[in-house]
Amino acid sequence: MLRTLVARDFDEWSEIRNRCKEWLVKWEPRPPQDRIDVTNDRRAFAARCGMRQRERQLGTGHGFGIFVNNKVAGEINLLSIQRGPMQSATIGYWVDEALAGNGYVPEAVVVVLRFAFEVLGLHRVEISIIPRNFASRRVVEKLGIREEGLAKGFLEINGIWEDHIRHGITAEEWSARREELIQRWISDLPSQVGEWTL
Fold it and tell me: Which residues, 6 or more positions from 118, have their beta carbon under 8 angstroms from its beta carbon?
C-alpha cells in the first residue's frame, strides 16, 4: 500500500532509517549541517510531513510511504513536477534493506507511474540512478524502463557530485505498456483510476 507519511509513522520510519543507515545514506543528498536530524527528531519528521503536504497542495510533488503488512517499508516520491511545455517529474525511492528484492519497489513505481500519467496527466517521468547502485538499477531493469544516457556530475550525493544514468518513460510508452505493467505488478488493483486513491 502507498499512502502519505504522517507524524504517527515516525517510530517505524526512524527505526528503518537508523537500522539501514549504511544501506541508504550513500545514495542520498547530504542534509545541510545546520538542519535538525529528521531521522531522530519527531518534530523535524512532522515538519517534513508538512512540507510534503505543501508540495501536494502546490502541485510540485507527491510523497508516499511504502507499506507492507501495514508497516513502513520505504518511500517513493514523485518530485520536481514541471507543468507548462514539460509536463514532467522525477521518481526517487528507497526500501528497508531487509525487504529488498521482494518486488515492492517495482510495484510501487508502477503505481506511481499510473498516478503520474493517468491522474496528474504528466507526459514524462524520469528515474536517475548512480551507476554503481545496482539495487536501484535492478528496479528499472525489471520494469524495462528505457535508459537515456549518462548525466555527468548530475546530483550532489553524500557530498560528492555523482554521475547518474537517466531512465525515462513517456505517456505514449505508458499507454503502450500499461496493461503489461499493471498485469505483472499491480493486477489486483481496480482497472479504473477513479476507483482507488493513493
Answer: 193
Closest by Cα among 24, 28, 158 to 100: 24
Q: Which domain holds residue 114?
A: 2-195
At 192 the pLDDT is 37
Mean pLDDT, rounded, for 74-93: 97
Q: In this structure, what are the phi and psi dihedrals at residue 41, rounded to the nearest 5 degrees? A: -125, 115
pTM of the prediction? 0.92
Residue range 58-64: average pLDDT?
Answer: 96
Three-state SS sequence of 30-84:
CCCCCCCCCCCCHHHHHHHHHHHHHHHHHCCCEEEEEEECCEEEEEEEEEEEECC
CA distance linking residue 174 with residue 108, whole number of Å:
15
CATH of the domain at 16: 3.40.630.30
Total of domains in the chain? 1
> Model confidence over 164-179: pLDDT tens digits?
999 999 999 999 999 9
Per the CB < 8 A criterion, the answer to whether 1 and 67 are in contact is: yes
Lowest mean pLDDT among 101-115, 132-146, 178-192: 178-192
